[in-house]
Design goal:
The chain is mainly alpha-helical. Helix content is about 70%, strand content about 5%. The relative contact order is 0.21.
């Protein structure tokens, strides 16, 4: 049985106002950068794919788009995590939840990008219906790599900024 509202009591730690401003600014800048670059990656992933009529091509598009979606959510989580630091206090409990969420989102980005990349490599090496290697395919692999890097940036930035001991 899950009781709504139960769980660990919020743990608040006093921090100096300049530190609050630094945490809020760092999370906003990093989150906005991840969202902006992730949006570019979404466009590259979904629009620059080679137009092949292979039956499994749609699955690669879905996995690449899903990976980009998780990357955008990681950036949004960083921007919204600014609420953990306000009025001279730091909410340790919510910061731990955000750090865990960033880890899960980065893992989802890695999984989706790996599946999409492996599927594209399989499509390139298919003998029955070969897909040509074009600039669009190269940009697709670069975009998948960029998504994984952006997820890592979000994870490590959140882990570093959102770690204030009680």
């Amino acid at each position: 049985m899950i009781v709504v509202g139960q769980g660990p009591a919020p743990c608040w730690v006093w921090i100096s106002p300049p530190r609050v401003d630094w945490i809020r600014a760092r999370l906003a800048r990093t989150g906005a950068a991840v969202i902006a670059l992730g949006s570019v990656a979404v466009v590259v992933v979904l629009l620059n794919l080679p137009s092949s009529h292979h039956p499994f091509a749609w699955f690669g598009v879905v996995m690449g788009g899903l990976g980009a979606f998780w990357g955008l959510l990681a950036g949004l989580s960083l921007v919204l995590a600014r609420d953990c630091a306000r009025d001279g206090y730091f909410d340790v409990t919510n910061a731990q939840a955000v750090r865990r969420t960033l880890g899960v989102l980065w893992g989802a980005v890695i999984a989706c990008a790996t599946i999409a990349g492996l599927l594209q490599v399989g499509l390139l090496s298919d003998d029955t219906r070969p897909v040509p290697f074009t600039v669009g395919v190269a940009l697709y692999f670069v975009a998948l790599y960029l998504l994984v890097v952006l997820g890592g940036v979000a994870f490590f930035a959140g882990r570093g900024v959102l770690r204030v001991s009680p």
